[in-house]
Amino acid sequence: LGCELTASTKSYTFQVDEEDNSDHILALSVVCLTDGAKDECNVVEVVGRNHENQEIAVPVANLKLSCQPLLSLDNFKLQPPVTFRLAAGSGPVHLAGWHRIIHREGASFEEDDDLSEEDEEELPPIMPAKK
């Protein structure tokens, strides 16, 4: 994931194909002001849906060039579809993160010779260390 929010492009929506029988994880790593940002408060919100399918917006970053130009979100995990919105300020604010696709057990999917980094292989269980 990589997108930029500005005064002219205030939102970005990340969607996935919900029919692909896979689980998707979107993780937000860093939110930062980029070249051309003014010294003003830039508030970035995550807009999603709650368990009752109502839209909710939660602020995840409040950046200001002079005191907080960058925020590490330590791979803050979200369930797509999700929208990132510049609720205040004019940016530009850059968002960086990753998207992981986890194929459900027993799901049929076409094999692809061009495996992307987005596919995650199932890891064997961790065994306790021998003493």
TrEMBL record:
SUPFAM superfamilies: Nucleoplasmin-like core domain. Keywords: Acetylation, Chaperone, Methylation, Nucleus, Phosphoprotein. Residues 108-131 are annotated as: Disordered. Its main location: nucleus. It comes from the Eukaryota. The keyword Chaperone applies. GO terms for cellular component: cytoplasm; nucleolus; nucleoplasm. Residues 108-123 have a biased composition (Acidic residues). Pfam families: Nucleoplasmin. Residues 2-100 form the Nucleoplasmin core domain. GO terms for molecular function: chromatin binding; histone binding; RNA binding. The keyword Lyase does not apply. It is found in: Nucleus, Nucleolus. Transmembrane segments: none annotated. GO terms for biological process: chromatin remodeling. Belongs to the nucleoplasmin family. Interacts with NPM (via N-terminus). Forms a pentamer with NPM at a ratio 4:1 (NPM3/NPM). Two pentamers form a decamer. Plays a role in the regulation of diverse cellular processes such as ribosome biogenesis, chromatin remodeling or protein chaperoning. Modulates the histone chaperone function and the RNA-binding activity of nucleolar phosphoprotein B23/NPM. Efficiently mediates chromatin remodeling when included in a pentamer containing NPM3 and NPM. PANTHER family: NUCLEOPLASMIN, NUCLEOPLASMIN-3. This is Nucleoplasmin-3. The lineage of its organism: Eukaryota, Metazoa, Chordata, Craniata, Vertebrata.
